User: Fold these one by one.
Assistant:
Number 1:
Amino acid sequence: MTKNQRLVYIALLAAQAVIISLLERAIPFPFAVAPGAKLGLANIITLLALYTLPTKDAFKVVSIRLVLATLLGGTISTFMYSAAGALLSFLGMLFVKNLGRKHVSLIGVSTTGAVLHNVGQLMIASWIAQTWTVMLYLPVLSFIGILSGIAIGIAANYILTHVEKLHYYMDLRDLRQQ
Protein backbone atom coordinates (compact mmCIF):
# COMPACT_ATOMS: atom_id res chain seq x y z
CA MET A 1 0.00 0.00 0.00
CA THR A 2 1.32 3.40 -0.93
CA LYS A 3 1.56 6.29 1.49
CA ASN A 4 -1.40 7.99 -0.20
CA GLN A 5 -3.56 4.88 0.10
CA ARG A 6 -2.68 4.61 3.79
CA LEU A 7 -3.60 8.28 4.34
CA VAL A 8 -6.92 7.78 2.55
CA TYR A 9 -7.63 4.72 4.71
CA ILE A 10 -6.86 6.71 7.87
CA ALA A 11 -9.09 9.55 6.66
CA LEU A 12 -11.94 7.16 5.83
CA LEU A 13 -11.77 5.52 9.25
CA ALA A 14 -11.66 8.93 10.97
CA ALA A 15 -14.60 10.21 8.91
CA GLN A 16 -16.65 7.13 9.72
CA ALA A 17 -15.85 7.51 13.42
CA VAL A 18 -16.86 11.20 13.39
CA ILE A 19 -20.18 10.46 11.66
CA ILE A 20 -20.94 7.63 14.08
CA SER A 21 -20.06 9.89 17.04
CA LEU A 22 -22.37 12.63 15.81
CA LEU A 23 -25.21 10.20 15.14
CA GLU A 24 -24.80 8.60 18.54
CA ARG A 25 -24.82 12.00 20.22
CA ALA A 26 -28.18 12.72 18.55
CA ILE A 27 -29.77 9.51 19.84
CA PRO A 28 -30.82 9.61 23.51
CA PHE A 29 -29.64 6.70 25.62
CA PRO A 30 -32.70 4.85 26.97
CA PHE A 31 -31.37 4.03 30.44
CA ALA A 32 -32.29 6.60 33.08
CA VAL A 33 -30.17 4.65 35.59
CA ALA A 34 -26.94 5.99 34.11
CA PRO A 35 -27.32 9.54 32.82
CA GLY A 36 -24.66 10.45 30.30
CA ALA A 37 -23.85 6.84 29.40
CA LYS A 38 -23.45 6.07 25.69
CA LEU A 39 -22.86 2.88 23.76
CA GLY A 40 -19.59 4.06 22.23
CA LEU A 41 -20.36 2.96 18.69
CA ALA A 42 -17.42 4.93 17.28
CA ASN A 43 -15.14 2.53 19.14
CA ILE A 44 -15.93 -0.01 16.43
CA ILE A 45 -13.79 2.16 14.16
CA THR A 46 -11.13 2.54 16.86
CA LEU A 47 -10.88 -1.23 17.13
CA LEU A 48 -10.66 -1.59 13.35
CA ALA A 49 -7.85 0.97 13.32
CA LEU A 50 -6.08 -0.77 16.19
CA TYR A 51 -6.19 -4.12 14.41
CA THR A 52 -5.47 -2.95 10.85
CA LEU A 53 -3.02 -0.07 11.25
CA PRO A 54 0.26 0.58 13.02
CA THR A 55 -0.16 2.07 16.49
CA LYS A 56 0.75 5.63 15.50
CA ASP A 57 -1.78 5.59 12.65
CA ALA A 58 -4.49 4.13 14.88
CA PHE A 59 -3.80 6.93 17.34
CA LYS A 60 -4.17 9.44 14.49
CA VAL A 61 -7.64 8.04 13.75
CA VAL A 62 -8.65 8.44 17.41
CA SER A 63 -7.19 11.97 17.61
CA ILE A 64 -8.86 13.14 14.41
CA ARG A 65 -12.20 11.73 15.56
CA LEU A 66 -11.85 13.43 18.93
CA VAL A 67 -11.01 16.85 17.52
CA LEU A 68 -13.54 16.83 14.66
CA ALA A 69 -16.41 15.48 16.76
CA THR A 70 -15.74 18.21 19.32
CA LEU A 71 -15.55 20.93 16.67
CA LEU A 72 -18.79 19.73 15.06
CA GLY A 73 -20.87 19.58 18.19
CA GLY A 74 -19.00 19.77 21.43
CA THR A 75 -17.58 22.13 23.99
CA ILE A 76 -14.30 22.46 25.84
CA SER A 77 -15.65 20.35 28.70
CA THR A 78 -16.82 17.58 26.37
CA PHE A 79 -13.38 17.68 24.76
CA MET A 80 -11.70 17.28 28.15
CA TYR A 81 -13.92 14.35 29.13
CA SER A 82 -13.61 12.71 25.73
CA ALA A 83 -9.86 13.22 25.50
CA ALA A 84 -9.20 11.72 28.93
CA GLY A 85 -11.47 8.78 28.20
CA ALA A 86 -10.10 8.24 24.70
CA LEU A 87 -6.45 8.40 25.77
CA LEU A 88 -6.84 6.02 28.71
CA SER A 89 -9.06 3.73 26.65
CA PHE A 90 -6.63 3.65 23.71
CA LEU A 91 -3.63 2.92 25.93
CA GLY A 92 -5.51 0.18 27.76
CA MET A 93 -6.77 -1.42 24.56
CA LEU A 94 -3.28 -1.31 23.07
CA PHE A 95 -1.79 -2.96 26.16
CA VAL A 96 -4.43 -5.71 26.29
CA LYS A 97 -4.21 -6.29 22.52
CA ASN A 98 -0.46 -6.74 22.81
CA LEU A 99 -1.00 -9.56 25.32
CA GLY A 100 -1.85 -11.64 22.26
CA ARG A 101 -4.94 -13.13 20.65
CA LYS A 102 -4.53 -16.41 22.50
CA HIS A 103 -4.90 -14.58 25.82
CA VAL A 104 -7.48 -11.87 25.08
CA SER A 105 -9.98 -11.64 22.22
CA LEU A 106 -11.08 -8.50 20.42
CA ILE A 107 -14.16 -8.52 22.65
CA GLY A 108 -11.92 -8.39 25.72
CA VAL A 109 -9.96 -5.52 24.20
CA SER A 110 -13.22 -3.68 23.51
CA THR A 111 -14.50 -4.24 27.04
CA THR A 112 -11.23 -2.98 28.50
CA GLY A 113 -11.52 0.16 26.40
CA ALA A 114 -15.12 0.77 27.45
CA VAL A 115 -14.38 0.50 31.17
CA LEU A 116 -11.20 2.59 30.96
CA HIS A 117 -13.03 5.27 28.98
CA ASN A 118 -15.42 5.62 31.92
CA VAL A 119 -12.51 5.73 34.37
CA GLY A 120 -10.84 8.51 32.37
CA GLN A 121 -14.00 10.57 32.24
CA LEU A 122 -14.68 10.15 35.94
CA MET A 123 -11.11 11.16 36.76
CA ILE A 124 -11.67 14.44 34.91
CA ALA A 125 -15.03 14.88 36.66
CA SER A 126 -13.33 14.29 40.02
CA TRP A 127 -10.64 16.81 39.17
CA ILE A 128 -13.22 19.43 38.12
CA ALA A 129 -15.46 18.80 41.16
CA GLN A 130 -12.38 18.55 43.41
CA THR A 131 -13.77 15.47 45.12
CA TRP A 132 -13.28 11.75 44.64
CA THR A 133 -16.91 10.99 45.49
CA VAL A 134 -17.68 11.24 41.78
CA MET A 135 -15.89 7.89 41.45
CA LEU A 136 -18.81 6.27 43.31
CA TYR A 137 -20.55 6.35 39.92
CA LEU A 138 -17.88 4.01 38.51
CA PRO A 139 -19.58 0.67 39.32
CA VAL A 140 -22.72 1.71 37.45
CA LEU A 141 -20.77 3.00 34.46
CA SER A 142 -18.48 -0.05 34.54
CA PHE A 143 -21.44 -2.42 34.33
CA ILE A 144 -22.86 -0.54 31.36
CA GLY A 145 -19.34 -0.29 29.90
CA ILE A 146 -18.86 -4.05 30.11
CA LEU A 147 -22.16 -4.68 28.34
CA SER A 148 -21.52 -2.11 25.63
CA GLY A 149 -17.90 -3.26 25.29
CA ILE A 150 -19.07 -6.79 24.60
CA ALA A 151 -21.60 -5.58 22.01
CA ILE A 152 -19.07 -3.27 20.33
CA GLY A 153 -16.46 -6.05 20.37
CA ILE A 154 -18.83 -8.49 18.70
CA ALA A 155 -19.68 -5.94 16.00
CA ALA A 156 -16.01 -5.03 15.44
CA ASN A 157 -15.04 -8.70 15.30
CA TYR A 158 -17.69 -9.32 12.63
CA ILE A 159 -16.53 -6.33 10.58
CA LEU A 160 -12.85 -7.20 10.99
CA THR A 161 -13.37 -10.70 9.61
CA HIS A 162 -14.79 -9.13 6.46
CA VAL A 163 -12.09 -6.44 6.28
CA GLU A 164 -9.46 -9.19 6.35
CA LYS A 165 -10.83 -10.38 3.03
CA LEU A 166 -10.00 -7.07 1.37
CA HIS A 167 -6.89 -6.84 -0.77
CA TYR A 168 -5.76 -3.56 0.80
CA TYR A 169 -5.90 -5.04 4.29
CA MET A 170 -3.16 -7.48 3.41
CA ASP A 171 -0.98 -4.55 2.37
CA LEU A 172 -1.85 -2.81 5.67
CA ARG A 173 -0.83 -5.90 7.60
CA ASP A 174 2.55 -5.83 5.84
CA LEU A 175 2.90 -2.11 6.60
CA ARG A 176 2.03 -2.64 10.28
CA GLN A 177 4.81 -5.20 10.67
CA GLN A 178 7.47 -2.74 9.43
Number 2:
Amino acid sequence: MERCTITVQQVAEYLGVHTDTIYDLVRAGSLPHIRFGRKILFSKEGIDGWVRDQASASVRRGDVE
Protein backbone atom coordinates (compact mmCIF):
# COMPACT_ATOMS: atom_id res chain seq x y z
CA MET A 1 0.00 0.00 0.00
CA GLU A 2 1.38 3.39 -1.00
CA ARG A 3 1.74 6.01 1.71
CA CYS A 4 -0.66 8.91 1.20
CA THR A 5 1.04 11.46 3.46
CA ILE A 6 4.41 13.17 3.51
CA THR A 7 6.39 14.78 6.34
CA VAL A 8 7.58 18.34 6.92
CA GLN A 9 11.07 17.33 5.76
CA GLN A 10 9.70 15.75 2.58
CA VAL A 11 7.57 18.82 1.78
CA ALA A 12 10.58 21.08 2.31
CA GLU A 13 12.68 18.96 -0.05
CA TYR A 14 9.84 18.77 -2.59
CA LEU A 15 9.40 22.56 -2.60
CA GLY A 16 13.11 23.33 -2.29
CA VAL A 17 12.79 25.35 0.89
CA HIS A 18 13.99 25.05 4.49
CA THR A 19 11.85 23.17 7.03
CA ASP A 20 11.52 26.43 9.01
CA THR A 21 9.63 27.88 6.04
CA ILE A 22 7.21 24.97 6.12
CA TYR A 23 6.63 25.39 9.87
CA ASP A 24 6.04 29.14 9.34
CA LEU A 25 3.45 28.42 6.62
CA VAL A 26 1.73 25.85 8.85
CA ARG A 27 1.62 28.31 11.79
CA ALA A 28 0.14 30.97 9.51
CA GLY A 29 -2.51 28.51 8.32
CA SER A 30 -1.36 28.99 4.73
CA LEU A 31 -0.29 25.44 3.91
CA PRO A 32 -2.85 22.60 3.97
CA HIS A 33 -1.83 20.03 6.57
CA ILE A 34 -3.06 17.36 8.95
CA ARG A 35 -2.12 17.19 12.63
CA PHE A 36 -1.88 13.98 14.62
CA GLY A 37 -0.97 15.24 18.07
CA ARG A 38 2.36 16.99 17.55
CA LYS A 39 3.02 15.34 14.19
CA ILE A 40 2.32 17.41 11.06
CA LEU A 41 1.60 15.57 7.83
CA PHE A 42 0.63 16.66 4.32
CA SER A 43 -0.99 15.08 1.29
CA LYS A 44 1.10 15.46 -1.85
CA GLU A 45 -2.08 16.29 -3.77
CA GLY A 46 -2.86 19.05 -1.26
CA ILE A 47 0.64 20.49 -1.64
CA ASP A 48 0.43 20.33 -5.44
CA GLY A 49 -2.93 22.15 -5.32
CA TRP A 50 -1.50 24.79 -2.99
CA VAL A 51 1.43 25.36 -5.37
CA ARG A 52 -0.98 25.75 -8.31
CA ASP A 53 -3.08 28.22 -6.31
CA GLN A 54 0.01 30.24 -5.35
CA ALA A 55 1.17 30.33 -8.99
CA SER A 56 -2.28 31.49 -10.14
CA ALA A 57 -2.38 34.20 -7.48
CA SER A 58 1.09 35.40 -8.55
CA VAL A 59 -0.06 35.70 -12.15
CA ARG A 60 -3.17 37.65 -11.09
CA ARG A 61 -1.01 40.03 -9.02
CA GLY A 62 1.53 40.35 -11.82
CA ASP A 63 4.38 38.84 -9.78
CA VAL A 64 5.45 36.49 -12.60
CA GLU A 65 7.68 37.93 -15.28
